[in-house]
Task: structure prediction
Amino acid sequence: MRPVEPARFRAVMGHFATGVAVVTVDTPHGPMGMTANAVASLSLDPVLALVCFDNAARTLPEVERAKRFGVNVLAADQEPLARRFASKEDAKFADVAHSVHDGIPVLDGTLAWVGCELDSLVPAGDHTIGIGAVHAAELGAEGLEPLIWFGGRYTALG
Result:
């Protein structure tokens, strides 16, 4: 059996709608983050979440150093934040409203956020799976729609 070509796999998996999140970490130089859509709840006993980090992501070594991270679930009107945190620019947090809870940067206006203590990092091809023990889980503003990634673009449910 021949392996599936990466471009074909990406095209097919692009038909799986996912939410969009910004993974954050506090560093000695200030907060840092990245956009991610490979995020999921993993376990209820114990309560665990997972995030898939590109091995080249600058956020990954900072999460490994800090031993904690946050997952900020974006609302439909936060597409500009998704684009900003997906970019390679250095000052991603410039003028971004946020607070810090237990050492984890939390973006204002999100649908929800969770704070995690790093449990483990698991190498997986060109990514690393970060597993976090959830120590905080909060809902954001009521009545917001989620930001969705589908077909290679951001969209909303409606």
Q: What stands out?
A: The CA atoms of residues 28 and 79 lie 27 Å apart.
